[in-house]
Amino acid sequence: MRDIMQTITIGVVSVSDRASQGIYEDEGIPHLKAWLTSAIQNPIIFHERLIADEQAEIEATLTALVDHEACDLILTTGGTGPTKRDVTPDATLAIADKEMPGFGEQMRQVSLYFVPTAILSRQVAVIRNETLIVNLPGRPRAIEETLAGVKDSEGKVVVNGIFSAIPYCLDLIGAAYIEVNESIATAFRPKKK
């Protein structure tokens, strides 16, 4: 029998040259932590990292969060566009065991509901060992939209957010079992026979 309220370890990584240099305050990590704390019922241990848009630094950070901190889930924010400095997806793919392309496809689908430039995003998701790593957009509002999805004025889901698939993905790879606050997000798991 599993302990359904086990502690989950989550890495939150903000990739930004200017925020990492103190030019402006990072909004990604606080927003991610607030949303995750409201959506997940389990106790959470967060490992926070604010780093520059440097591929080697991103690779080293993600590797350390998986291999040394034993994160179940890592969410990055920023660095997913087409500019020369946007290398978060490249770094994420470089340290991956498996790519999970459905997450990137769905993130762009959610974002396309709001802006046509969503097709410029290169967000990816991968598995390394027993950890799911997902590259989210950089803006706090876009982070929430991507995770929670799009709802109409009556609260009905129009486009599913990616968080609905994260708990089951973690189940499948042997990571911690997430209990979800259904008023914030849904988790789709197959019904047991």
Automatic annotation (TrEMBL):
Keywords: Molybdenum cofactor biosynthesis, Nucleotidyltransferase, Transferase. Residues 11-157 form the MoaB/Mog domain. The keyword Cell division does not apply. It catalyses: molybdopterin + ATP + H(+) = adenylyl-molybdopterin + diphosphate. Its EC number is 2.7.7.75. It comes from the Bacteria. PANTHER family: MOLYBDENUM COFACTOR BIOSYNTHESIS, MOLYBDOPTERIN MOLYBDOTRANSFERASE. This is Molybdopterin adenylyltransferase. It comes from Ignatzschineria rhizosphaerae. The lineage of its organism: Bacteria, Pseudomonadati, Pseudomonadota, Gammaproteobacteria, Cardiobacteriales.
